[in-house]
């Protein structure tokens, strides 16, 4: 049987993806072992002299800049293989495998299940206002949803992550009035680990239902796009109560009082009819003032409709004047009104029978008094209790754009005829529902038709024949079938034609494309956010906390934790973090300087001149290494045939300890660096494989010592002050100094590559700690600032505390930092090729200054200035 020929994938250049050949795509071998074609190597950017980054592994390698890529050796074997075009089963394409250090653990073991994705975070992060941006002046009575607040933050500028949204630049004036609408709760954790302010908001948002988050995003997008909608600045959390609220613009104009004041100046009073407040407008010119206000009201509602938002109910409180007299629609007030309506009418929902007609009448009378004009179809939805299923079409009449036409017409009638007559008219309307009817009968429609005729008669009295078109369109707005009502756009056109003659109006031909058919109509009053009663959510939260604390049955507890088809906040944090516990390792008498793991042990160096050894099995004390005469500043571990622990002290002493089965007390080798009166000993150590030991010293130099015979190989000079930290990654030695700079050295020949940082007098911030992971370099400074470089380019600088950051640890995407503030800060690094972003995940409050950090297999080791070491882990 003939074996079918397998087509071999020939090797290709990692840059241009062209197959190698002996002509124009000659493979040249770099010192890291990878190959790239000669043409591409000549075009690679050279950030540092005589070096390039390998396009395959991105490691810095030597490059003969003067001679060019032709001076590099050809990959003859590769060319021979291609020429033969014969697949060799023993020679497969090499894939670069990342060899994880067995002493390291996945950073996700410490934060195992963050519930939000990077995409989720990038979508919502720009809407999170700083925790000190809002100061609550008056919380109001219990259950008040919109307390008056004062915004203290001056300016927030950030870009929205939504591709469909423009850049979000919010200018917030100091002491600007805002209102709050509670949308979620974020409970605090009882663990030693405390989530950050932003992380708690993300947890609360992630815990919302999909529909609730979608509606929240729709509201935020509408406030961005529409000029006639009061701005929604973002999300803010009250750290004390854990309530997450929408922060909304609060205009000072009192809409209804201003309108009533204007109306009383325009109409003839004391008409003698007890059922009427006024007789009508004195002149047509005075009626024009009403028409101008009517146009503004229409334009505000049209702004919502252009985003697919409807209400089904409008009230005077939903509108506000700005300082220039323009009318805006207030989304916060609409949501507050909707939540209040649910409280008022929801008792009639879910099939509950009404037995007390007087009770029903009282509730509807209250609606007419507060002048919240609920469209018939929305009112029937409430009474029938179908809103819980979001089934708005079950009655044959759905809540839509026509519903707002009905409510807007009510407001215009209110302004035309006055408060007392309007209250009487709508009391009659609500009385149609006092028996709690759930079916539309012929008798009911006849009663409603009689009510609309009465409204038309009142309008005819106040508008007269000259404004018959306005009377006609307003009467059409009161049609029972929402589909037969005119759009708000039609009402706007009618009012405009009364103000400006069509033959001279140059803008009348323009299309007012307000209602966009591609949008799905979303009713805010029937939306998910109005269903969230704060006391109900808070009560559920407290109940779930009791369930967590009082039940030992896991199955029963889980059943109680799940409510309304979702997991509550406490369970999210319980699954997310479990219980962060800690154990203390006590034995040192002074400040912990460094922590390192190797050979199954934890080694801790201290200012008490001792080196302690701890078991990683049960974290018990094993023994101490003694012999240093000065404070031990650094310690490293190396497996060079023998397992060795190397320590350096402030007096220049270097001690090598053999880590055998007996853990010898005496050092295997010790020697001292030369020193003079300026010298302050060794401050940092680093190991390069099994070849060299590097020491960072107070004499501003870095020395390389051979691990074979412990002789000095070379001295690297360039820093202007003490070398405080050393780190090695991808063939490069990174050295941080008190002079505020970080220098990069090529390990093959110890030549300098570049200098990062700023050593300009007056701008120097001493580098106290370094951490490197692949292409990411993070440096901590004495001014509390963290700087991040990627591929040797500064990407981000963040201020995390006021005091010095003495220790940092970068593991995967997690960054741990601590210092004078006695707090371990946990941040997650994310981003793409264009930029780096950081998420503040949380913090661990400590009782002493943090001087050393180490992460290993899901455990965080923290060394303190008081000589204590703490091990933090879940389920210790």
TrEMBL record:
The keyword Transmembrane helix does not apply. Residues 13-58 form the RING-type domain. Residues 131-499 form the Protein kinase domain. Residues 82-109, 541-562 are annotated as: Disordered. WD repeats lie at residues 585-624, 716-755. The keyword Metal-binding applies. Keywords: Metal-binding, Repeat, WD repeat, Zinc, Zinc-finger. One of its GO terms (molecular function) is ATP binding. InterPro entries: Kinase-like_dom_sf, Prot_kinase_dom, WD40/YVTN_repeat-like_dom_sf, WD40_PAC1, WD40_repeat_dom_sf, WD40_rpt, WDR86-like, Znf-RING_euk. Residues 82-93, 541-558 have a biased composition (Polar residues). This is Uncharacterized protein LOC104605824 isoform X1. It comes from Nelumbo nucifera.
